[in-house]
Automatic annotation (TrEMBL):
InterPro entries: ASPCH
Organism expressing this protein natively: Shewanella cyperi
Annotated ASP external chaperone domain residues: 38-155
Signal peptide location: 1-23
Superkingdom of origin organism: Bacteria
Keywords of the record: Signal
A Pfam family of this chain: ORF_2_N
Entry keyword annotation includes Translocase: no
Name this protein carries in UniProt: ASP external chaperone domain-containing protein
Record flagged with keyword NAD: no
Source organism phylogeny: Bacteria, Pseudomonadati, Pseudomonadota, Gammaproteobacteria, Alteromonadales
Amino acid sequence: MKLSKLVLASTLTGLMSCGAATAAPHEKAPAEQATPSKMQVTRADFLGLKDQYLVKTDKGVQPAKSLKKGNELVTDAGEPFAVLTGKLVVKLAEGVSADEFAKSMDLRLDWQSSNQLVLLSAAADADLLGLLERLKANPQVLRAKLDRAANKQEPM
């Protein structure tokens, strides 16, 4: 037992003499300089209510004037972002019949949730941007956005 205490003491003394065991305080960034890791996203951004649909043209990246099923959307930098599915995600007001609403807008009802959220399909050649504006202007619609397919597995 005496020998192990002696070895330990000499090891610590040797480490301290060569500077290996000196403790230096670790520097922290002051709290006021710390940056939050949460991203600030508004409800409208999350729901897609302020979407600006960009497409690549001969003149570069431009806001879309007309969109159809299969059109590719791009980022500000012109990178492919998503492809339009030809469907619209719509939240209907309470009491609105999804079947009747779809028929009145010449759309097909593909899916309906218990809380008035519906997925509607447009005709293959329909102007989706014009249709979206008509839906948003309808008093029976609380919110509407274009459905898009994005490959989230590929880096952008």
